[in-house]
Amino acid sequence: VTALERQVFDFLGYQWAPILATFTHIVVVILGLFGTIQYRPRYIVVYAVWAAAWVTWNVFIICFYLEVGGLSKDSGLLTFSLSRHHSWWHEHGPGCVHKEPAASLGPLDSQALVPGIGCTLERGCVEALHSALQILVALVGFICACHVVSVVTEEEDSFDFIGGFDPFPLCHVSEKPSSLSFEQVCLPAGGIGEEHPSRPQPAPTTSSFGDPC
After folding, report:
1. Per the domain annotation, does 146 fall within a domain?
2. pLDDT digits (tens, 9 = 90+) for 2-46
3. Is 60 exposed, middle or buried (0-12, 13-18, 19+ CB in 10 A)?
4. Which of 71, 130, 142, 212 could potentially form a cystine with 51 if both were Cys, beta carbons 3.0 to 4.6 Å apart?
């Protein structure tokens, strides 16, 4: 939900780099939920790896809008320099008074944004708060993903693939050469050497050569 909310505001500001990153994040979150429901550890591992990358991306966004390390929030880095839009909160921040651009005889620039006046929070602070929320959610998701992977792996290692799967009893067919008749003796699943309680075992016959049949 928080990723979708952020994607909406990124679309309003035409910030193409955050749009692509958030879209990838939404896809990976859906993949991680599918892996959790279907007990697919590989999908959950993919989500865990992306969660670490998502935290790194949001740390960069915070540094970008707070202008840490020589970064400038007025640059076209997040828009790939394709438009002059920056952030939707640039003029629609909390408590901002919208200021209409002054009329001029020059060519109209529909992509120009006029910053708001008297904003309670600067656009950099709003974007930083959004990124901080994403970092918090990603850390919780990373911890949960690691826990689910460990639980699923332990269940797969401890599962007995042999015991309890005996749908058919073991049967032994004895042949009497004298009468050419066949008698089927069903043995329990515990082993061939055990006698069936409801049917007596036939006496072994001896062939003409003295060997037991």
Report:
1. yes
2. 999 999 999 988 889 999 999 999 999 999 999 999 989 999 999
3. middle
4. 142
